[in-house]
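Example 3.2
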Amino acid sequence: MTPTKVHQLGIIALIVFTVAAPWVLPLFVDSFWVDIYSEMLIWSLLAASVNLLFGYVGLLSFGQALFFGMGMYGVAIGIAKMGLGFWPAFGFGTFLATAMAAVAGVFAVRLTWHYFAIITVVFSLIFYFTALSWKPLTGGDDGLPFSMPPIFTFGEDVKLSLTNTTIQYYFIALTVGLCYTLLAIVLRSPLGRAFRTVKENDMRASLIGLNVYLVRLTAFICAGFIAGVAGSLFAFFGRYASASYMFYHVSGEAVVWAIIGGVGTLLGPVVGTSLLIILREELSHVWEHYLLLVGSIVIIVVIFAPRGLGGLWHGLVNRLASRNDGTLDSSEETKL
């Protein structure tokens, strides 16, 4: 079996598990794990936005929480303050995050290395403190709760709403799946190849005719869009928006999730996010200082699997294939 088929089987298994999770998980664990798995999927999108910039363009951002928070506040303000319905509020939250990414990106992508990381933190802090102080609009420290509007209404009696936990789960899973599908299409397109070319050597990329600034800006806006969708979903999931989710430590967690899962791999963020959230939930019941254990596990993974768990998986599959075939398929460098 070729590495490509193994990876495809892995993706199929993940899809099947995600579809069956509301029925499978309660058979083995408490039913609240269905909600936790929904949360994992949402947070994996935030990690995917980090992965897009760091893993494919070479820009390490600690400001993705800004766009996550913009998505949250766009939904909450749209419903609670503007009286928008479900889909207009969802669109407003995503648009607000994407527009903020476009504005911030104009300035941020002129820089690289630690300068880029610093300016993304600065942008995040500016709007974090703005959200805290603008209490009439954002709710300040208390956050901004809202009532869930229906997704669809059929007549006067039939309404589909995320207040139904099953509908909520599948809406989140479908939206996250569509985002990853869109991301996969982009990464396999000429634009995705331009991302990787700029990451490998931006000077050579400019010499062959690529506009490095525009490529980085496009990636930054795409990452902001993904983080905005994640923030919008999380607002619907929690029925509120809070400035605390715009703080840079949220971006730091997303960076860790992406690195542990494997930057430069499509589904690495899902793996890293799921692993660390599961560890957090399980170890928190065992020891009050559970973060020490989580941190130790992260350090061990980074030392012994510097390419992350996704990179470890790809390496293992390719080695097994090379033993069976006697050759290593170089095309597997395009990771799933």
